[in-house]
Write a structure and sequence with these properties.
The protein has helices spanning 30-39, 57-69, 71-74, 76-91, 107-113, 142-162, 169-181, 271-280, and strands spanning 24-28, 41-46, 93-101, 120-124, 134-137, 195-206, 211-214, 218-219, 225-227, 233-237, 240-248, 258-263, 287-290. With 296 residues, the chain is of the alpha+beta class. Strands 2, 3, 5, 6, 7, 10 and 11 form a 7-stranded antiparallel beta sheet that branches. Strands 1-4-12-13 form a 4-stranded mixed beta sheet. β6 and β7 form a beta hairpin. It is elongated. The termini are far apart.
C-alpha cells in the first residue's frame, strides 16, 4: 500500500491562505508601477538577485541542522535519503520570486524597494491574484522554523515507517517539494517585512561544460497543470544579468486583483493623476491614497 499525498504534509503553515479581505502589497519604483499596471503581469526574479544574501541558503541550513539531530530518532538511512532529495531540489532548480508585504506603508520598504519613497505600493487582493506560482507565507522566527522542521521530519518518518520504508515516488515528490518550500524561511533580521511570496520554479541543467536554466511548466497541489513552460528573460541590474519570468496576474483577464495604490512619502505625483492613469490602463474602482510616513 503506497503512502497517500494527504498523509505527507508540506511545511506546516507556509502555504499562504489569505485572512478575510486582507491585501498584500508590492513595493516598486514608478517605472515598474507603470509596467505592471499596463501589462497586467508580475516579474518573478531569480532568488540569487534578491536583497537577502542568505536567500534559500538559510532555509537549507536550518533543515540540515535539524535533520542531522534527528538521526537517533529516525535512523541514518531515512535522514540521508531526505537530505539527498532536498539537496537535489535546491541544486537543480532556480526559485523565481515576486515579493509582497502585509504592511502597505512601511518606511523600510519604501526606502529599499520603492525608489527611496518616490514609488508606489500596489495593494492586491490575494484571492484574485491568480498566477502559476506558489504562494508562501515567510517565517522569520528561528525557533519556530526548527519546530516546524522537527515536526515535519518526525511525521514523515512515522508515515514511512508504517508502510515499510518503501521510499516510493510519493516520498520522493514530497521531499523534493519540501526542499523547494524552504524558501519560505528567512533570516530573523527581515521580520519587519512580513513577506508573502509567490514562487515559480525554473529548472537548472548542470554539466562540466555549461550551466543553463530550463523553462518548466507548473502544477498545483492536486497535480493539475497550471501552465506550460514559461520563457526566461534577462535584465541588467547594477551591471549584472538578472534572470526573471513574466506571469499574467489576471488569470487571462478573468480577475482584477489590484484594489489599492499607495503613493510613497516622496512621490511627487498626485492621487488624481494616478487615478486617471489607472482608468486609462483599464483598472476601475482602485483606491488611491498617499503614504502616512513622515519621510522627506
Amino acid at each position: 500500500m503506497a503512502i497517500s499525498i494527504e498523509e505527507v504534509k508540506m511545511i506546516q503553515g507556509r502555504l499562504y491562505k489569505p485572512e478575510n479581505d486582507e491585501l498584500i502589497y508590492h513595493y516598486c519604483d514608478p517605472n515598474a508601477f507603470a509596467n505592471i499596471m499596463q501589462s497586467r503581469t508580475m516579474w518573478h526574479t531569480a532568488f540569487s538577485a534578491l536583497n537577502d544574501a542568505t536567500e534559500r541558503e538559510w532555509g537549507l541550513a536550518q533543515f540540515l541542522d535539524v535533520a542531522d539531530k534527528q538521526r537517533g530518532a529516525c535512523g541514518a538511512e531515512f535522514i540521508d535519503r531526505i537530505i539527498e532529495i532536498v539537496r537535489l531540489a535546491q541544486g537543480f532548480t532556480v526559485a523565481m520570486i515576486s515579493s509582497y508585504s502585509l504592511n502597505g506603508d512601511l518606511l523600510s520598504q519604501w526606502r529599499a524597494y520603492a525608489d527611496d519613497g518616490r514609488g508606489f505600493a500596489i495593494g492586491f487582493a490575494p484571492r484574485e491574484l491568480e498566477m502559476p506560482a506558489k504562494p508562501l507565507r515567510v517565517l522569520y522566527d528561528r525557533a519556530a522554523q526548527k519546530r516546524e522542521l522537527v515536526n515535519n521530519i518526525k511525521h514523515a518518518f512515522e508515515v514511512e515507517k508504517r508502510f515499510g520504508f518503501r521510499y516510493d515516488e510519493v516520498f520522493l515528490g514530497h521531499w523534493f517539494g519540501f526542499g523547494l518550500d524552504l524558501s519560505a524561511y528567512k533570516h530573523p533580521s527581515f521580520a519587519e517585512e512580513k513577506e508573502i511570496r509567490r514562487v515559480r520554479i525554473t529548472g537548472l541543467a548542470l554539466n562540466k561544460n555549461e550551466r543553463r536554466m530550463v523553462p518548466l511548466g507548473a502544477i498545483d497541489g492536486s497535480g493539475v497543470e497550471r501552465s506550460g513552460p514559461v520563457p526566461i528573460h534577462y535584465r541588467v541590474r547594477n551591471g549584472v544579468q538578472v534572470p526573471y519570468v513574466v506571469l499574467d496576474m489576471t488569470d487571462n483577464g478573468k480577475n482584477a486583483p489590484v484594489k489599492e495604490i499607495i503613493l510613497g512619502p516622496k512621490n511627487s505625483d498626485n492621487e488624481e493623476n494616478v487615478a486617471a492613469f489607472l482608468i486609462s490602463a483599464g483598472w476601475n474602482g482602485v483606491k488611491v491614497r498617499r503614504s502616512d510616513a513622515p519621510y522627506v
